[in-house]
């Protein structure tokens, strides 16, 4: 284009076509063609009788002529090649129907190899060009939505890496976002299990004091139990119960269509960037949760949540989050739940008990009476044992106390037993039983004082240095508890 402009400029200044050709190193035919086109365009402009004719003449003058390749003969991309490539596309569609989402699609390289193996004289670049055109999908058009306040909220999980007490771990953000009010809420969890999924909903509904008419999800396992074909889905029965209780409708997006819940997709990124980009190190998990809550309060300053609250469905009392299980007590007076073991009273060995599993704890019932309560163990192959669950068995088998697994789960009692009651297990059990009815702080005080009071065996030489730090720490704890509960004055 630049050379063409220079040719026309020199021609308009009166230079001959021969001189222009010589000075610019161009073929005389090329120079002549450019100059002749310019002359014809100028003549048409001068002769134009209306605006339309003037527009056409002007375009011929100022617009560069494009080479028309539509009439060029396709030498290697013959109708036979096109038909074969269309059959390959049909085979790909059948493959996708059978396999569903997959990463085994034919590439232009593979198509070239197939065609060349079948005797077609065609090169990769030609195949790549036409394969891309033939398989290109039409771009999707989106319809802008305008939701009423209280009508819709979107849910999703997002990942965030944090350093808690010196340990780096992946945590999960349960995020709700309202497209109408531009309000969003999030909470941190250590995993994405079903109980967390439900608890996040309960927390959110409690926090805003109401329920949205529709909750939108993607195809996560807590929402869809089974896919039937490409588009039909079976919803999770427990989610249906949950939605029935609170009164909201379930809306599940199409597969691979994150845009259908674009509000929460964007809010997950915003929460992660705004809350944990600059600050990611915390002393404890609770500190990270407090930081998230404070940051969300700032981010939601411009939302219309107060206005939206008036449009929400009435709030219901918290949904019962527990899962019910019937589990058999093994010979070690414990139940197995999710690869961990939790103790129950020893008289229940061989019986079946009812377990209510909450997100963070278990409550165990026998004959409709609560018999045990345990904090859930994070991880697997762990034990949560209560020494009082084994009192009756120890009274029959006091010799089993010394090396028992349950005693090792109470390090202070284990240390005191080893040094003071190694040969008096019945007295040790008597003291444990005596203070069973006390509340937690009184039990610690009375049991520790009783053990020391009745300890008559002198320490072996050299072991006093080992037990003294334990006793000193115990005494310090006792003094602190006494002062807290008004049993001892704070020293001046």
UniProtKB/TrEMBL annotation:
Gene3D superfamilies: Ribonuclease H-like superfamily/Ribonuclease H, Winged helix-like DNA-binding domain superfamily/Winged helix DNA-binding domain
Name the record gives this protein: IS21 family transposase
Domain Integrase catalytic intervals: 144-322
GO biological process assignments: DNA integration
Pfam families assigned to the protein according to its UniProt record, in alphabetical order: CENP-B_N, Mu-transpos_C_2
Top-level taxonomic group: Bacteria
One GO MF term: DNA binding
PANTHER family: INTEGRASE PROTEIN (PTHR35004:SF7), TRANSPOSASE RV3428C-RELATED (PTHR35004)
Family according to the record: Belongs to the transposase IS21/IS408/IS1162 family.
InterPro entries registered for this protein in UniProt: HTH_Psq (IPR007889), Integrase_cat-core (IPR001584), IstA-like_C (IPR054353), RNaseH-like_sf (IPR012337), RNaseH_sf (IPR036397), WH-like_DNA-bd_sf (IPR036388)
């Amino acid at each position: 284009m630049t050379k063409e402009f220079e040719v026309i400029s020199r021609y308009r200044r009166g230079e001959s076509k021969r001189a222009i050709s010589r000075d610019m190193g161009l073929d005389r035919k090329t120079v002549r063609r450019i100059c002749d086109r310019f002359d014809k365009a100028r003549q048409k402009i001068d002769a134009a009788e209306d605006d339309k004719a003037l527009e056409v003449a002007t375009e011929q003058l100022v617009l560069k002529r494009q080479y028309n390749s539509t009439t060029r003969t396709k030498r290697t991309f013959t109708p036979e090649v096109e038909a074969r490539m269309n059959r390959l596309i049909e085979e790909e569609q059948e493959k996708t129907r059978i396999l569903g989402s997959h990463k085994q699609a034919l590439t232009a390289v593979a198509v070239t190899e197939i065609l060349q193996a079948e005797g077609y004289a065609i090169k990769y670049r030609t195949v790549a060009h036409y394969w891309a055109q033939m398989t290109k999908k039409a771009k999707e058009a989106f319809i802008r939505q305008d939701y009423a306040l209280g009508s819709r909220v979107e849910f999703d999980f997002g990942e965030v890496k944090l350093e808690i007490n010196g340990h780096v771990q992946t945590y999960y953000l349960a995020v709700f976002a309202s497209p109408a009010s531009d309000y969003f809420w999030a909470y941190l969890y250590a995993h994405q299990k079903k109980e967390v999924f439900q608890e996040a909903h309960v927390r959110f509904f409690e926090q805003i004091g109401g329920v949205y008419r529709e909750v939108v999800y993607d195809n996560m396992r807590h929402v869809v139990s089974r896919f039937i074909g490409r588009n039909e889905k079976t919803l999770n029965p427990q989610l249906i119960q949950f939605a029935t209780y609170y009164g909201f409708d379930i809306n599940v997006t199409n597969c691979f269509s994150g845009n259908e819940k674009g509000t929460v997709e964007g809010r997950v990124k915003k929460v992660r960037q705004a809350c944990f980009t600059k600050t990611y190190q915390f002393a404890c998990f609770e500190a990270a949760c407090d930081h998230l809550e404070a940051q969300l309060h700032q981010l939601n300053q411009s939302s219309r949540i107060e206005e939206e609250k008036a449009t929400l469905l009435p709030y219901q009392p918290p949904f019962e989050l527990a899962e019910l299980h019937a589990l058999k007590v093994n010979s070690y007076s414990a139940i197995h739940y999710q690869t961990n073991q939790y103790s129950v009273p020893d008289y229940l060995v061989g019986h079946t008990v009812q377990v209510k599993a909450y997100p963070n704890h278990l409550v165990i019932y026998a004959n409709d009476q609560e018999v045990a309560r345990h904090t859930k163990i994070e991880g697997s192959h762990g034990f949560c044992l209560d020494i009082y669950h084994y009192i009756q068995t120890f009274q029959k088998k006091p010799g089993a106390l010394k090396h028992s697994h349950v005693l090792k789960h109470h390090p202070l009692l284990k240390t005191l037993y080893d040094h003071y009651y190694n040969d008096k297990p019945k007295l040790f059990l008597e003291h444990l039983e005596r203070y069973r009815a006390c509340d937690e702080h009184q039990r610690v005080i009375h049991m520790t004082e009783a053990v020391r009071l009745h300890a008559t065996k002198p320490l072996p030489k050299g072991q006093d240095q080992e037990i003294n730090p334990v006793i000193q720490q115990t005494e310090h704890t006792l003094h602190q508890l006494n002062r807290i509960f008004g049993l001892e004055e704070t020293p001046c």
